[in-house]
Write a structure and sequence with these properties.
heterodimer, A: 573 residues, alpha+beta, TATA-Binding Protein, 7-stranded antiparallel beta sheet, 22 strands, disordered C terminus, B: 364 residues, mainly alpha, two-stranded antiparallel sheet, 10 helices, binds protoporphyrin IX containing FE
Chain lengths: 573, 364
Amino acid sequence: MSKTTPATPAGPDAPVGDQDLGAAGSQLSTAPAESLSMPTLGVVGWARWFWRQLTSMRVALLLLLLVALGAIPGSLIPQSGTDATKVADFVKNNPTLGDVYDKLGLFHVYSSVWFSAVYILLFVSLIGCIVPRTWQFVGQLRSRPPGAPKRLTRLPAYTTWRTEAEPEQVREAALALLKKKRFRAHLTGDNVAGEKGYLREVGNLAFHIALIVMLTAFAWGQLFKSEGNKLVVEGDGFSNTLTQYDDFKSGNLFDTGDLVPLSFRLNKFTGTYETSGPNKGTPRLYQAALTYSEGAYGKGHKTLVKVNEPLEIGDAKVYLTAHGYAPLITVRDGKGNVVFHDAVAMLPLDSNVTSTGVIKVLDGYKNPKGVSEQLGISAFFLPTYTKGSETASTFPALNNPVLNLAPYHGDLGVDSGIPQSVYQLDKSHVKGFKDSKGAQLRENLRPGQTMQLPGGAGSVTYEGTKQWANFQVVQQPASGWALAGALTAIFGLAASLFIQRRRVWVRAVRGADGVTVVEMAGLGRSESAKVPEELGELAGVLFDQAPSPSEATEAEPDGVSDSGAASSEGAEN
Amino acid sequence: MTYAAATELATATNEHLANISNTLIYSSMAVYTLAFFAYIAEWLLGSRSKVGRTAAALTADAKAKAPAVTVTKGGSTAVLERPQVVVRSAAGSRDVPDGPGAHGGDEQGDLYGRIAISLTVLAFLVELAGVVARAASVERAPWGNMYEFNITFSTVAVAVYLGLLALKKNVRWLGLFLVTTVLLDLGLAVTVLYTASDQLVPALHSYWLYIHVSTAIFCGAVFYVGAVATILYLFKDSYENKIASGGTPGRFANSVLDRLPASASLDKFAYRVNAAVFPLWTFTIIAGAIWAGDAWGRYWGWDPKETWSFITWVAYACYLHARATAGWKGRKAAYLAMLAFGCWLFNYYGVNIFVTGKHSYAGV
Ligand code: HEM
């Protein structure tokens, strides 16, 4: 046996690399060939070299690693997109570091220039990878699997035997067998070549294309999304226009005309909680009963919105995101005229829904002297008041509600043009009502109780308690595409990883002694136990059709690499 | 019966069940410890006989013979040898045979190995019962906090190992390493992470919980098995390199590493295991995104847990790509696999403990 490729350092019996298989091993995948050679051809040459590098597997690997690396800081450093107050805190506590982080875009990693640059490069690389691979694959589908290499013995799986059947007969049988086993097979000279597992390549391409679809859908969704919050007290309603939202965020390309027309009313909010055990107070169920209508003047439908079950109308989804209490307050002036009657939402402070808020009487109130004034009543609400725990609720449900009120009068500063939270009281231009000892008046009320303001300034009545729920209305277009891409990706991936693309050759020639020598070999894209197994099964079937001559037991497997190969080579020449 | 009384009774049963579960978990730890000692005995006895090892290597070779075909000929049944398939490894790989396993061909060692596996099976059953009792006591799937996650995780990891054994895969060598980490995992669970948890917050009430978390646990268990194989591959590979370049490895390395499967087999095993769960891991992330879409109003929000799942996913994709790229096979790819598993571990422990986000609900 002589060395056919002097360049190969391996000895004659050592396994040999792909280069020895020549055409037989070519195009068993559509993976691009790696080359590091430097270009010599001016600008075009460089451009081509750059493109080839960008679309090589090595660079794809590098870019993938970079995306993973780049995603890390975003998970460790507070992000303005998810928690702006945390970012502000961080900057306040670490001014220099905060400055550096800000310059590097580390407070919004996933929309920063450098992160976008990496994933756009990956995106381009992906496309640059898929297009040529698809063409190549189409080409492979139109051509036929290459004929057998000269020395089948060198393939990863090999078997041989001698038979009395004619070579043509064996080849016919082999062709029929391979076709029956759904190989793409054909006759080339003294051998039959078959290939199977194209679905692997289809799956792989589908997966990479699905990644593009997913990335595009995700980007599209980010650009056109909108997300607004609205707090609604039981009995109140909401209709989907920009002005009605408490706060509203949208993607760069969003247009207010894109808002899905819908409206709803909150009939009742229900929250139930664990009443005993170590997790006492843990929420069990949140649910909001709504009457909603689609379109501007749609018919009303009743529905329940729960935490995991948003209301879906067209592209919009209405989520239940928070809840709290809204005491119903009536304020009267000294003459007994009602100047305020409304449910005032309180902001929860802890998991037992200890809440604070402010009752603001902006106009209509006149003090005992007959002068118009504003009233601001700072409120503190405990849904479950327990003696001994004066400042914190002990359970989230409305078991023993107490409303603590501290009234002020004067100018609330609402008209000053500076935006003001509805939950905070600007005390710079107001004076507190004093109690008999001259301290700030402060009183605990239970439902139905009334607090008198000193000097005939009026009264405040805590009538009862309503609940409020916060709704987030989200529109994120193209999420259907993202889902479709994701599902395709999974199936493509499974096909790509579980299906093996492999080739089988059957050569049948008349040996020097006139007896037919059958050789079979298999080659997979990667080393796999399945290839020899399958080859064994095929050989078993073919062997039954072309058995060894009864006296000849010389098809000794161990002798294969010497005598078997030699005789078949002899037949070739 | 009044409503209150009924709740009281239910609570009492639940506490009873929770206690049973705790007892079962502790018992399983005891049995795992016995299994651990049996594995140790297997390894110790196995280091005795070099002769046995060579013999075992030979018989292992003989077992690899192709299956025979039975052909009926004129009424009498004759067994014909099917033409045997000769297998060659790819270019550049060393042709080192697999080691004989921990027992090293020593009969007594083998016996201890079998005892160890039986004990592992027993411990697994006890632990499984513990997990089921826990689930019954909290009346939901047992993965609402890190304690439950840990006990379920180790149960599944052992199930994967026993499943591979049942499929007659050559994985007995994994036993000692697996049981050691299972003991660590359970120790951590019952000491640091123990939570007498009750119900889930409403955001966790969803059938996506079952889908997303169960696949996450399963993927973790399989990734873990892959990671153990990868570490052993790295050791075995340098051991083989040393021998190939004429060096003499230390006595310990000689005794232990020689009995492991060949580095090529370990590498292949690790790849298969990782590649096989990668699609499921992809599915896990997507299921999580669908769930997040329902629960939080967006399917992807770069929450730390989401981010680290993504990082883990990308790291495993890197590993798979590296395997498909000629220059990156072998050790380099193995380092990537270790990196990827490191990401998975950080996602599990690190993110829950050090980083706050929407997922850190269970208070560890
Ligand atoms: C966006 C991130 C990407 C992910 C998550 C990804 C993932 C994967 C996975 C899981 C495989 C299967 C590996 C195997 O068969 O063992 C694969 C194969 C492949 N990928 Fe990617 N890929 C990505 C980007 C790219 C890019 C940018 C390129 C182009 C340079 C590329 C080129 C390939 C090729 C050629 C194969 C097939 C290798 C073969 O047939 O042997 N991939 N990819």
